[in-house]
Specification:
Structural class of chain A: alpha/beta
Number of strands of chain B: 19
Helix content of chain B: 40-55%
Largest interface: A-B, 42 and 37 residues
Low-confidence stretches of chain A: 1-38
Structural class of chain B: alpha+beta
CATH topology of the largest domain in chain A: Rossmann fold
CATH class of the largest domain in chain A: Alpha Beta
Shape of chain B: rod-shaped
Oligomer: heterodimer
Strand order of the largest sheet of chain A: 7-6-8-9-10-12-13
CATH architecture of the domain at 386-584 in chain B: 2-Layer Sandwich
Number of domains of chain A: 2
Radius of gyration of chain A: 24 Å
CATH class of the domain at 386-584 in chain B: Alpha Beta
Helix content of chain A: 40-55%
Low-confidence stretches of chain B: 1-14
Shape of chain A: elongated
Distance between the termini of chain B: 49 Å
Mean pLDDT of chain A: 87
Strand content of chain B: 15-25%
Order of helices and strands of chain A: HEHEHEHEEHEHEHEHHEHEHEEHHE
CATH superfamily of the domain at 386-584 in chain B: Nucleotide cyclase, GGDEF domain
Number of helices of chain A: 13
Mean pLDDT of chain B: 86
Number of helices of chain B: 16
CATH topology of the domain at 386-584 in chain B: Alpha-Beta Plaits
């Protein structure tokens, strides 16, 4: 507005006055609002792999996205939640349950497992996913620009940037060349991530030791193994199971004195060393926006898959101190968030 | 002229002017209404026309300004990246990679989120450093860039902007290459994720709901507030937006109207980003953009209706004011024309109408006077010779008709044998004979300026020296009687030829008599009362055909001027003594 020429500002001013006059006339007509009862509040089926606790920040972002399209939970939309409480095998049944409840749209955030469970449950009900992998490679959509089916959603770049975690760890631990790689064998993306990382390790001239964990109970042993093999650091694959257990992993990393990097910023915030991955706040907000747009009548087949634009590096200086490591300037200057 | 006057005079009451084809009221109303409404209409039409063009031009300017503003914002975004890239090409390349160059590159990635990857190339076109958000960083990659357009373009233009590509068929990317100010510092080549323009483009608002979007040279959507439209990278879906651009180009840069992707009719204006071949187009829904225009049109329309109504009212009132007096005048004139001369037209409009009414009133007054006069004249004419009547009238004094005693000569005459003739003859014949007879008598009486008092049956009574006195009345009376005899005798010759046995005798006497108007208001006569009248009547009765008998007074008054024969005194009815009688010798001394 201050950039506009004054004549324009005047014109706008005049317009306002006219509008006001027009409004006066219209007011008489519009004082009786058409209070047509909405036939029925649309229902969103929300499929979560964990419990509401770990999801809290994601849910907040999701609701923000919904609000951007004009939907507020409880006011003009209701949400049916189904939580797998970390038991990913139960996801398909929960998805089926949502389909049977005849919800308007299913929101399946938090990884490929959730998205695949939702896809298996219905081929017609609109589904909005949120994951870190490549939805085309996972067979969720035909292409990013034209999903084609009943699914669309948001992809963070977490899976793709797994190799960058190794690079950052290598940058931090110059002079060493053995690193451990944690992956969840039950994850649909584990194979591709391992292959990806192995290629990166080869190009960087590093030795990679893959450690598998698909249950919380295996975490302790994994950290112990890293310490025992004297690996320079532990690089986590992108996996929601790990991401939602950042606090636990951070505590174990501190306990075992293992420098580790995961995908989620929750990890350094909880006391871990580093994280590098897509901004889940952004991805979950977009999920909310897409859910809202589908509620408004848009078809998932015409909504292109969105990739989050932001990949963030978080570092924890306190954790580095405790480990007796100093961050080099390259990492310090690259970090989006530094925890002191 | 005379004919029309004659028609107008015939009878104004029984023959009113035929109803007019159209009323004056209607004419005035139409004229006055047109006089007010027409300029109003023309003013409104021109106001609407110019107002519309004004508003349209204003809208054009406004959208143009918005487009330029949006273009500046987009350009700032790109320029910002270009400037940041400039920082990475400051130091000349040495054999080994300087850590500071690496840090600069990493810092750039942190500071400019839109940069997905950065490649630093030395003066020979060899890749020295590559940093990325997704891929692994490389040092001394060694790829040859010397023949690539980005390197060549940056070397010649300092900054080079590549074409827009859609990664994975969805995300728009563009390569930007910037050369340092010395060739030794090489070139920085960055992959820009254009999705980041979304933050700029979605913040642009045109009016209340208007938006901006960006098309690249070939017409592909680069930025739009609805990012999914960009990510769809679908030509068919973006077709309307390209259509808008074509429409603007067709109108030589003026804002154009068209439909956007949501089928909403919009007004759009465009600005180019120099050096990029991108078009920044702002669009605003037509309904919103034209709202002031519509408001102005409604206002003008309302004013026009109100103005027209007012004009009609005004015209009605004025026409009423004009035709009201005219109706009053018409009515007044009709009354006056019908002879109601005492009618007065009451008009106090203070203008020409009032003057006209005054004139009519004056005319009515004059008409009343002249009618009174002509009535009097016609009354006098009944017994006075016309010229005498005129004279009386001219003096305006009819006191001559008042009663008085005066020396008069009374002349009586009648036909002999008329009773028998009228019994035998057809009425038409009788009337024709009488007509000729009285005509002749009247002529003579008139010629001698005598007063014809009455016709009775076949006789007539004529008075000389009253009401207008004349010199030597006896002589005049005798001469007149002689003329009467001569005129009538001539007629008698003709009648006798037809077999009518008629004769004519005259008797006259002179003496004092009371003369004056007698009778009632309805019937007024002039009469001479006295012995002389009786005597003259008796003399007439006793006169033979072609004989004129006169009494002694008349005879002595005439003296020797006329040859007289004294006859034997006769016994006349009403007279105790025999009356001396003289006969005028006709044809002698004439």
């Amino acid at each position: 507005m201050p950039l506009l020429p004054s004549t324009y500002a005047e014109a706008v001013d005049r317009m306002r006055r006219r509008d006001f006059i027009a409004l006066l006339g219209a007011a008489a007509v519009w004082t009786v609002p058409a209070r047509s009862q909405p036939a029925a509040m649309p229902v969103i089926g929300y499929l979560g792999s964990e419990s509401p606790g770990p999801y809290a920040s994601r849910l907040k972002a999701f609701r923000e996205g919904l609000a951007e399209t004009g939907y507020v939970e409880g006011r003009n939309v209701s949400v049916e939640y189904r939580w797998a409480e970390g038991r990913y095998r139960e996801l398909p049944a929960l998805a089926k349950d949502l389909v049977n409840r005849n919800v308007t749209v299913i929101v399946a955030p938090g990884g490929a497992e959730v998205a695949l469970a939702a896809k298996a449950a219905s081929a017609t009900l609109p589904i909005v996913f949120e994951l870190g992998g490549d939805p085309v490679a996972l067979g969720l959509v035909g292409s990013l620009s034209r999903p084609g089916g009943n699914l669309t959603g948001v992809s963070s770049l977490s899976v793709e940037v797994s190799r960058k975690r190794l690079e950052f760890m290598n940058e931090l631990r110059r002079g060493t060349n053995v690193f451990a790689f944690a992956l969840n064998p039950t994850s649909p993306t584990s194979a591709s991530q391992l292959k990806n990382l192995q290629a990166a390790a080869d190009s960087l001239g590093l030795e990679l030791v893959a450690l598998k964990a698909s249950d919380e109970k295996e975490f302790e042993g994994m950290f112990a193994a890293v310490r025992e093999m004297r690996a320079a650091g532990l690089v986590f694959s992108s996996d929601p199971y790990f991401a939602y257990r950042s606090d636990q992993l951070a505590a174990l990393a501190v306990k075992h004195g293992v420098p580790a990097i995961t995908q989620s910023r929750d990890f350094p915030i909880a006391g871990g060393l580093m994280s590098y991955g897509g901004d889940f706040g952004q991805s979950h907000r977009h999920t909310g926006v897409y859910a809202g747009r589908i509620l408004k009548g848009e078809k998932p087949s015409e909504l292109p898959v969105q990739r989050v634009t932001k990949v963030e590096l978080f570092i924890n200086l306190k954790a580095a101190n405790a480990l007796g490591i100093a961050f080099p300037p390259s990492l310090l200057s690259s970090a989006d968030g530094v925890i002191e | 002229m005379t004919g029309r006057r004659a028609v107008a005079r015939t009878d104004p009451v029984s023959d009113p002017p035929s109803a007019p084809r159209t009323s004056l009221f209607k004419k005035y109303f139409r004229a006055l209404f047109a006089a007010v409404a027409l300029p109003l209409l023309i003013a409104s039409a021109s106001e609407t026309w110019f107002g519309y063009h004004d508003q349209r031009a204003r809208l054009n300017d406004r959208l143009d300004a918005e487009a330029r503003l949006a273009a500046v914002k987009i350009q700032d975004f790109i320029e910002g990246i270009r400037e940041q890239l400039g920082w990475t090409v400051q130091l000349p390349w040495t054999e080994n990679i300087d850590d500071r160059q690496r840090l600069d590159a990493l810092r750039l990635l942190r500071q400019v989120p839109a940069v997905a990857s950065l490649t630093l190339v030395d003066a020979t076109g060899k890749e020295r450093l590559f940093v990325s958000r997704i891929g692994l960083n490389r040092i001394e990659g060694g790829d040859d860039y010397s023949t690539k357009p980005a390197f060549l373009g940056a070397r010649s233009e300092r900054a080079w902007f590549g074409p827009v590509t859609f990664q994975g068929g969805s995300e728009p990317f563009m390569t930007v290459a910037v050369a340092g100010n010395r060739s030794a510092v090489g070139v920085a080549i960055a992959e820009i994720n254009l999705k980041f323009i979304w933050e700029v483009i979605s913040a642009i608002r045109v009016g209340r709901t208007g938006e901006a979007f960006v098309l690249d040279g070939p017409g592909r959507l680069v930025a739009h507030p609805d990012i999914s439209l960009v990510l769809r990278a679908e030509e068919a879906a973006q077709q309307p937006l390209e259509g808008l651009r074509d429409a603007i180009i067709e109108r030589a840069g003026q804002s154009a109207t068209g439909r956007d992707t949501t089928r909403t009719t919009v007004v759009a204006a465009m600005a180019q980003i120099p050096g990029l071949d991108w078009s920044v187009i702002v669009k605003q829904p037509l309904s919103e953009a034209f709202q002031p225009i519509y408001a102005a049109l409604w206002r003008t329309g309302g004013l026009l209706i109100a103005g027209t109504a007012l004009a009609a009212l005004l015209a009605y009132w004025l026409a009423q004011r004009m035709t009201g007096p005219i109706r009053l005048l018409e009515d007044g004139v009709a009354r006056i024309g019908a002879g109601q001369f005492d009618h007065r037209i009451n008009l106090a409009t203070g203008d020409e109408f009032e003057r006209l009414a005054t004139r009519f009133n004056e005319m009515a007054g004059e008409l009343a006077i002249s009618q009174e006069r002509s009535e009097r004249i016609s009354r006098l004419r009944r017994f006075l010779a016309p010229q005498v009547a005129e004279l009386v009238d001219r003096t305006g004094d009819d006191s001559v008709l008042d009663g008085r005693r005066v020396e008069v000569v009374v002349v009586f005459c009648d036909l002999r044998g008329f009773t028998a003739f009228s019994a035998q003859s057809e009425p038409e014949t009788v009337m024709a004979v009488l007509g000729e007879y009285f005509g002749a008598l009247e002529k003579v009486v008139s010629a001698h300026e005598a007063t014809l008092l009455s016709f009775t049956g076949d006789g007539a009574m004529v008075l000389v020296n009253a009401p207008v006195s004349c010199p030597d009345p006896a002589m005049r009376a005798v001469t007149m009687a002689s003329d009467m005899q001569m005129s009538v005798q001539k007629l008698l010759v003709g009648w006798r030829a037809l077999g009518h046995r008629l004769g004519f005798g005259v008797g006259l006497a002179m003496g004092p008599a009371t003369v004056g108007r007698i009778g009632s208001e309805g019937r007024l006569d002039y009469a001479a009362i006295g012995n002389v009248t009786n005597l003259a009547a008796r003399l007439c009765a006793s006169a033979d055909d072609s004989e004129i008998l006169i009494d002694r007074s008349a005879a002595s008054a005439v003296g020797s001027a006329v040859p007289l024969v004294e006859l034997d005194a006769r016994l006349l009815k009403g007279f105790n003594q025999p009356v001396p009688v003289f006969a005028v010798v006709i044809g002698v001394g004439q």
